[in-house]
Amino acid sequence: MKLIFERSVEGRGCSLLPECDVPVVMPSMERKSPLRLPQVSENDISRHYTQLANATHGVNDGAYPLGSCTMKYNPKVNDEAASLPGFTRVHPLQPEETVQGCLHVLHDAEKIFCEITGMDAMTFQPAAGAHGEFTGLLLIRAFHESRGDSRRTKIIVPDSAHGTNPASAVMAGYQVVNIPSTPEGCVDLEKLAEAAGEDTAGLMLTNPNTVGLFDKNILEITRIIHEAGGLCYYDGANLNAVMGVVRPGDMGFDVVHLNLHKTFSTPHGGGGPGSGPVGCKEFLKQFLPGREAAEGEQGLYLREYPGSIGMVRAFYGNFLVVVRALCYCLTLGPEGIVQAAHMAVLNANYVRVRLSEAYKMAYEETCMHEFVMTLQPEKETMGITAVDVAKALLDYGIHPPTMYFPLIVHEALMIEPTETESMENLDELAEAFLEIHRKAQEDPEWIRSAPHTTPITRLDEVGAARNPRLHYEFTR
């Protein structure tokens, strides 16, 4: 399809904005030349964006089994709640008495998510998961500094963690100590015990981890870290599998972040918005960023945290994401939240068992919300790689799963069906994978050259990476 600039015709346009109803002030920073915007009619604009939408695959189009990202269907009632004028037409600097409804959203959401995670307090300031990780690590740093303990300079991160964990630790000023996994995909307790010591500030653990397993030694892991004087951080990005079933706080964790834009009903992907609220135990509450919605004689008001690390984002985070999450939780209720977690696990294991007929699983244990296959046997016997299978899925109207992650599995494909897919949809997904495997044996070149039915077929990915064209080149 054509770019919007390629549709441009000089002199063409349309009036989309109302006339300015205030005095026009020309600032000193006014441009010396007009913006080079495309000149198109309303008809051109409408068709252009319709074509873009048609060329984009989302959860409304078909299966989206992107592992570790929970790309699921989100009930539209939650979007409607977040679109109510009482939530959208407010200003963060309004007097507190005029935004009591918004403060109740923050207050009630905090209580619900503290109950789900087993924490005592929560901030909604962080704008995404990695931002939440960074905020949680700043809480850990503030705790150690408040005790005058400057020896603790290291954060332990298992190799099955999310990739942002070590990056966040380094941003917070820590050295990262990597711990290997056992052949069963869990943390090596012996290596963990060797690494934990007087210089350990804390542990960052993704649970369930990136191979889709719940670590059976979770209580022993937190005990080792606490006995060494460190704190335990729980990456809750995969809470989809355990919400309402088990709580990080009961496992011995001191800090946790959630991904509201994955687990709790805000559409994930496309650049935002996101929300990565951070919960903590009572002894860390004083260090939280921003302000809390507290109960007073005249209603709710915003109260400073006495030892706050300071603001990590303007105002109160992505507020409308919190509205969606609260609506989601209230609609499901305690029983519905548990059922959603159970369905996420059931669906993943159903697909895992079906695909085990043809593909090798990286780990044979019962998984949680996602599982990882290895295409190493296909690569060695047929020359078919993980990326070949992923590309072939496009011909079946299925978004590819996560490729080549986690790094501890060679030729990895990570699949997360999510709890919102029906059994019929799961069967279609499984049949597509199985048919691709049969075709790989009969006609491997067809798989290597896939996709065949998409607007753009197999790309020269090396060329695109080394010589990217990142902007439109004007001819005049």
UniProtKB/TrEMBL annotation:
One of its GO terms (biological process) is glycine decarboxylation via glycine cleavage system. The modification N6-(pyridoxal phosphate)lysine is found at K262. Keywords: Oxidoreductase, Pyridoxal phosphate. Its cofactor is pyridoxal 5'-phosphate. InterPro entries: GcvPB, GDC-P_C, GDC-P_N, GDC_P, PyrdxlP-dep_Trfase, PyrdxlP-dep_Trfase_major, PyrdxlP-dep_Trfase_small. GO terms for molecular function: glycine binding; glycine dehydrogenase (decarboxylating) activity; pyridoxal phosphate binding. Pfam families: GcvP2_C, GDC-P. It catalyses: N(6)-[(R)-lipoyl]-L-lysyl-[glycine-cleavage complex H protein] + glycine + H(+) = N(6)-[(R)-S(8)-aminomethyldihydrolipoyl]-L-lysyl-[glycine-cleavage complex H protein] + CO2. Its EC number is 1.4.4.2. Residues 38-291 form the Glycine cleavage system P-protein N-terminal domain. Residues 340-442 form the Glycine dehydrogenase C-terminal domain. The keyword Oxidoreductase applies. Belongs to the GcvP family. C-terminal subunit subfamily. The glycine cleavage system catalyzes the degradation of glycine. The P protein binds the alpha-amino group of glycine through its pyridoxal phosphate cofactor; CO(2) is released and the remaining methylamine moiety is then transferred to the lipoamide cofactor of the H protein. The glycine cleavage system is composed of four proteins: P, T, L and H. In this organism, the P 'protein' is a heterodimer of two subunits. PANTHER family: GLYCINE DEHYDROGENASE (DECARBOXYLATING), MITOCHONDRIAL (PTHR11773:SF1), GLYCINE DEHYDROGENASE, DECARBOXYLATING (PTHR11773). This is Probable glycine dehydrogenase (decarboxylating) subunit 2. It comes from Eisenbergiella tayi. The lineage of its organism: Bacteria, Bacillati, Bacillota, Clostridia, Lachnospirales.
